[in-house]
Design goal:
This protein is 46% helix and 11% strand. By secondary structure, it is an alpha/beta fold. A 5-stranded mixed β-sheet has the order 2-1-3-4-5, with helices on both faces. Strand 1, helix 6 and strand 2 form a beta-alpha-beta unit. 32% of the residues are buried. Bound molecules: zinc ion (ZN). The site of zinc ion (ZN) has 7 residues, from helix 8. Its cofactor is Zn(2+). Keywords: Lyase, Metal-binding, Zinc. GO terms for molecular function: carbonate dehydratase activity; zinc ion binding.
Length: 290
């Protein structure tokens, strides 16, 4: 059973932390915030999250005939401030600089990929996995979605996990949550969010199972605790997949849970080591063979 330990590798995040170059960001989260009168008001409210109505009144949705629309449209087309225009130009600079500094990188990547890390994280723009790890293209295979939720039957994340583990043979699977997560804030509230409601259901289930604990904490600590619990739930889903259990046993695949602090750029690794009894039960219940 020794090969089935779901142990962490402490040096992994330590190395990543040394390479972190992130900076605090005050942009609002992508999820509308829950109402203020909920039992636990997440601290993301202090980061000026926008409302659903605000998001629907952005420049591209305004009446084309309005002066406000004309002004906003002009602003969005200003090549000196438009991020897509800037990004296209910077891509040329980045590609040239990277080719100079790492002349073998792009020719090698053109022949295939051998990433060591599978990253399962949130879609949040403040959580760019390759940048925060200080790594390069080709190093990290990625699946990101709102609030890094891993639905057991989700075809998208399931296909990514199976391909990464079975075919790319990654050495590490990382589930990453983050501070100020809008999805977590939404699940801590009770506002109807349309299509996001079924998506966030696993988060609400975690909230339900840990309600007493979460209600005993100040709002900001409760939100952070739900981030952590969501990561642990994601790890449960990952390690209930037979392809993952097989890779752990046969070639020492490591599974990690981390939390990214968007206010400092620093990753923190969670202690995710299971007991031998828990590992034994998981193998009995979930491991299958061809
Ligand atoms: Zn998030």
């Amino acid at each position: 059973m020794n090969a089935a330990r779901l142990a962490v590798r402490p040096g992994f995040v330590a190395r990543a932390t040394q390479l972190v170059q992130g900076a605090p960001d005050r942009r609002p989260s992508i999820i509308p915030s829950p109402s203020q009168n909920t039992s636990a008001v997440p601290f993301t409210h202090r980061l000026s999250p926008f409302s659903t109505s605000a998001s629907l009144s952005c420049a591209n949705h305004k009446n084309p005939g309005s002066s406000a629309s004309a002004t906003s449209q002009t602003d969005s087309d200003d090549s000196s401030t438009d991020k897509f225009t800037i990004g296209l130009r910077k891509n040329q600079e980045w590609a040239a600089q990277t080719a100079r500094e790492h002349p073998d990188l792009f020719p090698t990547l053109a022949t295939g990929q051998q990433p060591q890390i599978l990253w399962l994280g949130c879609s949040d723009s403040r959580c760019p996995e390759t940048s925060m790890l200080g790594l390069q293209p080709g190093d990290v295979f990625v699946h990101r979605n709102i609030a890094n939720i891993l639905h057991p039957g989700d075809l998208s994340s399931g296909a990514v996990i199976e391909y990464a583990v079975q075919h790319l043979r990654v050495k590490h699977v990382v589930v990453c949550g983050h501070t100020s997560c809008g999805g977590v804030a939404a699940a801590m509230g009770n506002k109807q969010l349309g299509i996001l409601d079924p998506w966030l259901l696993p988060l609400r289930q975690v909230r339900e199972r840990n309600l007493a604990l979460l209600q005993s904490l100040p709002a900001d600590e409760a939100a952070l605790k739900l981030v952590e619990l969501n990561v642990r739930e994601g790890l449960n889903v990952v390690t209930q997949k037979s392809v993952v259990l097989n890779a752990i046993q046969e070639r020492g695949l490591k599974v990690h849970g981390v939390i990214y602090d968007v206010g400092s750029g620093v990753l923190r690794e969670l202690d995710t080591q299971d007991s031998q009894d828990a590992i034994r039960a998981r193998l009995v219940a979930f491991k299958t063979d061809a």
